[in-house]
Write a structure and sequence with these properties.
With 302 residues, this protein is α+β, with helices and mostly antiparallel strands. The chain is built from four helices and 14 strands. The termini are far apart.
Length: 302
């Protein structure tokens, strides 16, 4: 009898501990949310030439790191140098014509004041003077445009980043406005973590989080919540976003009504101990600590 009672007691204790552990884990999961559905993101700058022509020099290779202002490639400048020379000649011609019209106006003014020439001749000289002046302005603008087009033949990196998807060789004819490669902005890396809508009430802007990349489980790094998504694409067609600008988040089980998942944007603080790449899968665990925003810090300061 005592043995049976002892067995019942042990069973009850085990069940109670299991229930307590389950409730504790669930409570911790809700109060301190975590997710394995996270990805590293970054801004991608599309590089496109501003003028058309054949490439004569390539300065970088695929996946190379570059700094802002580093040369990427150069387009044949011959046609654009010739256009600059033509524009220089047009400016000189316009200035010479303007000088002549100015002298004519000075003569006609003197004659008109002495009542030697007619008012119409004086007005014609004025009109010719102002027309020549406008031609000088137009010629100088054309020269400036030609010089700009010449400078556009040398394409440089607009930001610090990594060259991606570079598959172009010397001799390739490129078209103005058509993107040739992508530049991953190294200063823009962030993490998009998808949390269930039941977890969002326990996440706030400024809250710290621990981020772990797959393959680097022993090298976690820290992030801070910068924003929480205000919408996702409704896949059943009832949403108003017909352009697909909202993020599309698919549910894992189609026949069960599951809570939707919304993107939470986290800024990586400091220098992460692992290399960050766009699309890299990460796990995110929220921490109870909250960092006040810059505006709140200024208000709190005496």
């Amino acid at each position: 009898m005592k043995v049976r009672l002892l067995n019942y007691l042990i069973t009850f204790v085990i069940i109670a501990l299991a229930v307590w552990a389950a409730v504790s884990l669930y409570s911790n999961y809700i109060q301190n949310p975590w997710t394995r559905d996270g990805q590293v993101r970054a801004n991608v700058v599309g590089i496109a030439p501003r003028v058309s022509g054949p490439i004569i020099r390539v300065e970088v290779h695929d996946n190379q790191q570059v700094k802002i202002g580093d040369p990427l490639f150069e387009i044949d400048p011959s046609d654009f140098k010739a256009q600059v020379d033509v524009s220089v000649g047009q400016v000189q011609n316009a200035e010479a014509n303007f000088k002549q019209r100015q002298q004519d106006l000075e003569r006609q003014t003197d004659l008109y004041q002495k009542h030697v020439s007619a008012q119409q001749d004086f007005q014609n000289a004025q009109d010719a003077y102002y027309a020549a002046q406008a031609q000088v302005v137009s010629a100088k603008a054309n020269l400036e445009l030609a010089q700009l087009n010449l400078s556009y033949t040398k394409v440089v990196a607009p930001v610090d980043g990594y060259v991606t998807n570079w598959n172009t060789s010397v001799g390739t004819y490129v078209t103005a406005g058509k993107e040739l490669l992508a530049l991953v902005d190294t200063d823009s890396f962030w993490v998009a973590a998808y949390f269930k809508e039941t977890q969002l009430p326990h996440i706030q802007i400024g809250q710290k989080a621990t981020i772990t990349s797959i393959g680097y489980e022993n090298k976690p790094y820290e992030g801070v919540v910068r924003s929480i998504g205000w919408g996702i694409y409704v896949q059943d067609g009832s949403g108003s976003d017909s352009t697909g600008l909202l993020p599309s988040v698919s549910q894992t089980i189609d026949w069960v009504r599951l809570p939707q998942r919304f993107p939470v944007r986290l800024h990586v603080t400091g220098k992460p101990p692992v290399p960050l790449r766009i699309g890299q899968t990460v796990s995110v665990a929220m921490l109870p600590e909250v960092v006040p925003a810059e505006g709140e810090k200024e208000k709190a300061a005496p």
